[in-house]
């Protein structure tokens, strides 16, 4: 048996969060997400959590598992090498119920950066052509699954709800460095302010938290440089 200690909280009924303990049979290959389903089906049907793809692509099952942000669906219990597994929701975000957090702000900021390709007004007759070399410039950045682990881990986002957040800034870089996108100036204007790029304190939590091993901190640093250079170019005579 593996012991699961799961944070529970229903703001409609509870005064404060608590931790409930459940026993789950130890089975080879069992994931944390499957364990939560086991708990829901065998111990407490009211346990709330999000999941969808079960394949590490939809981003809905990100949570804090044994001290680290992980995707529950691709975390096998045996790999945690512990008889006790703690499961908590993403930090810093309002809990709607148990492991389900409110992602309204997260997606609002994502919308704010215009997360789609903005091409020249003259569109190609057929598809956009992108060379392998051009594509390599956005390798990794395109793999963000919007799981919100970085956002939940960021103390700046926790203290300033208006801060765009590491996910939105990484996505901005993903479009700025995409050869098909022609709106770099507008994109930099959308993020180069004190609730965007310049609010990031380079704490690196996002880089550590990302379950897809992406580097939002690095992307933010590159965008900061690009933004400063583009401002300098406008005022300097060379
Ligand atoms: S950058 Fe990583 S942690 Fe942040 S939303 Fe994307 S996949 Fe999740
Ligand atoms: S269920 Fe989709 S990422 Fe885990």
In short:
With 238 residues, this protein is an alpha+beta fold. It has 9 helices and 7 strands.
Protein described:
The protein is α+β, with helices and mostly antiparallel strands and 238 residues long. Helices cover 33% and strands 13% of the residues. It is built from 9 helices and 7 strands, in the order ββαβββββαααααααα. The protein has helices at 32-42, 104-112, 132-136, 149-153, 155-159, 166-176, 184-191, 205-209, 216-235; strands spanning 2-8, 18-24, 62-65, 68-71, 84-88, 95-97, 100-101. Strands 2-1-5-3-4 form a 5-stranded mixed beta sheet, with helices on one face. Strands 6-7 form a two-stranded antiparallel ribbon. A hairpin with a 2-residue loop joins β3 (62-65) and β4 (68-71). α6 packs antiparallel against α7 and α6 (166-176) packs across α9 (216-235). The radius of gyration is 20 Å and the shape is elongated. The mean pLDDT is 95. The chain binds iron/sulfur cluster and FE2/S2 (inorganic) cluster. Residues 144-150, 166-167, 170, 209-210, 212, 214, 216 line the site of iron/sulfur cluster.
């Amino acid at each position: 048996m593996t012991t699961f200690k799961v944070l529970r909280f229903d703001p409609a009924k509870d005064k404060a969060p608590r931790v409930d303990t459940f026993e789950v049979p130890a089975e080879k290959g069992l994931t944390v997400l499957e364990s939560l389903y086991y708990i829901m089906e065998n111990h407490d049907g009211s346990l709330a959590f999000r999941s969808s793809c079960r394949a590490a692509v939809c981003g809905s099952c990100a949570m804090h598992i044994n001290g680290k942000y992980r995707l529950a669906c691709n975390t096998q219990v045996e790999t945690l090498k512990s008889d006790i597994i703690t499961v908590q929701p993403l930090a810093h975000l309002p809990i709607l119920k148990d492991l389900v957090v409110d992602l309204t702000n997260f997606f609002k900021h994502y919308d704010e950066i215009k997360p789609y390709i903005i091409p020249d007004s003259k569109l190609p007759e057929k598809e956009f052509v992108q060379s392998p070399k051009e594509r390599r410039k956005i390798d990794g950045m395109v793999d963000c699954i919007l799981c919100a682990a970085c956002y939940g881990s960021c103390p700046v986002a926790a203290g300033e709800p208006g801060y765009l957040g590491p996910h939105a800034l990484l996505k901005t870089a993903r479009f700025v460095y995409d050869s098909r996108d022609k709106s770099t100036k507008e994109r930099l204007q959308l993020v180069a302010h004190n609730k965007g790029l310049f609010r990031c304190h380079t704490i690196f939590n996002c880089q550590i938290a990302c379950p897809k091993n992406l580097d939002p901190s690095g992307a933010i640093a590159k965008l900061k440089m690009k933004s400063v250079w583009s401002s300098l170019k406008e005022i300097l005579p060379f």
